[in-house]
Amino acid sequence: MNLTQGLHRARQNHPDRMATIFGERQQSFQQMAERVARLAGALRSLGLGANDRIAMLALNSDRYVEYFQAAWWAGAVANPVNTRWSLSEIAYSLNDCDSQVLIVDDQFAGMVDAIREQAPCVRTIIHAGEQATPPGMLGYEELIAAAAPVEDAMRGGDDLAAILYTGGTTGFPKGVMLSHANFWIASIARMAEMGGQPGSISLIATPLFHVGGAGRLVGQSIGGNTVVIVPSFTAEGVLDAVERHAVTDLMLVPTMLQMLLDHPRFERRKMATIRRISYGASPISLPLLERTLDLFPGVEFASAYGMTETAAAVCGNPPANHGPEARASGLVKSVGRAGYGCEIRVVDADGEEVPRGAVGEVIIRGGCVMLGYWKKPEETAAALRGGWLHTGDGGYLDADGHLYIVDRIKDMIVTGGENVYSAEVENVLARHPAVAMCAVIGIPSAQWGESVHAVVVLRTGAQAREDDLRSHCKTALAGYKCPKSFDFPEAMPLSAAGKVVKTQLREPYWRGQSRKVN
């Protein structure tokens, strides 16, 4: 179980098949294997050895794919850097895991001097852009051309493969340690359950520093399939890539899916090659899902549920659960059953399993679960207590083992002693014809402790008053669940992975309060 095996297999079985397509650049698996072996040789010549960390701060590209494969080929550990972070956050992650080599593209080359100053662990910077290599950096293509290819280090199993940083409760991000086996098991289990897509052409539009993008890439690599890469998500870029390269498989975060369908250039006929659409990383509103299903009849749909700590998906709702009967029964709202190789339980605050249908915290055990948090033994012990990963997600299991996620536990609103799950309110709000996007949070209330507050982005040209939206909610929700107040910004704050950043929405309301909501 090593993450270069897919590249070796693809080079043997279909060397001339396209491995990556990025803009005007295309390369076969044979060409990619040769470049990866040379890049790994260059990294070793720079002093990188087994378990050393190498970082990349860049937008998606074919070189990002090579970076992952070359890091593993050289026996090193990938440390992809969040492109939405501030300089201090970037420097923290580099220093925290002692990344000695950093690869940057044109977009981030201008930050290099400041990074050198704040992250002294970085001793070598490689420029992987389209423009001329700036002074003080090594040229990516020149390194590959000058290096001799090396043999694959063949690290695998429980060997560390990547450190992906995620949010931390202490104010600093946590480095999630994922092994070769973690990624491999998560990918193989999903392929076995959902069915492989041999010969597929998959679009990578989610950021590769995120587990959703990286996990997707690993799965396509194991399958030896072609990936089309766009630098970052834009609806225009996705539409162009699908039409130009006959993309068959899409994986999008719900906010991306909505932006795609709302784009003026969206035409279903231009996406005729699409065979499967996967969605995940955050909850999808039922109105958006129903709209998408109606627009793409005959296309297979599947959802994925997981997190950084599980190397992406641990379960998925398969295409069979997206048909008319599943939509009528509500099964389409499930995230599926526990995937192959993992177990899922729903427990109360004492860690005791709750009855089917009762809401509790989702916990997970299996080979996809992380090794732990880098240099954070206390947080690792808290997250993995009892041998189970405690996810912080609230959900319930039905009688047949289907898992339903109702909210992040931290996003649950307690108003007047009643629990309100934000996702339930968001699903109702999203059905209003004037609403393009919405998020529901709890804000301080002297009377109720917390009150339900809705943040709503209206559709272009649409109008809606607070009373209109509140009346709409009352047709489907108990009064205490309906928003007491509203904000109407022009856009939502989104993370680089396309999720609504609720901490940013809450911050103005909880600033200065003795109790904080994270």
UniProtKB/TrEMBL annotation:
Keyword Ligase: yes
Keyword terms: Ligase
Residues of the AMP-binding enzyme C-terminal domain: 424-499
UniProt-recorded Gene Ontology molecular function terms: acid-thiol ligase activity
Residue ranges of domain AMP-dependent synthetase/ligase in the record: 9-374
Keyword Ligase among UniProt keywords: yes
Family that this chain belongs to: Belongs to the ATP-dependent AMP-binding enzyme family.
Protein name (record): Long-chain-fatty-acid--CoA ligase
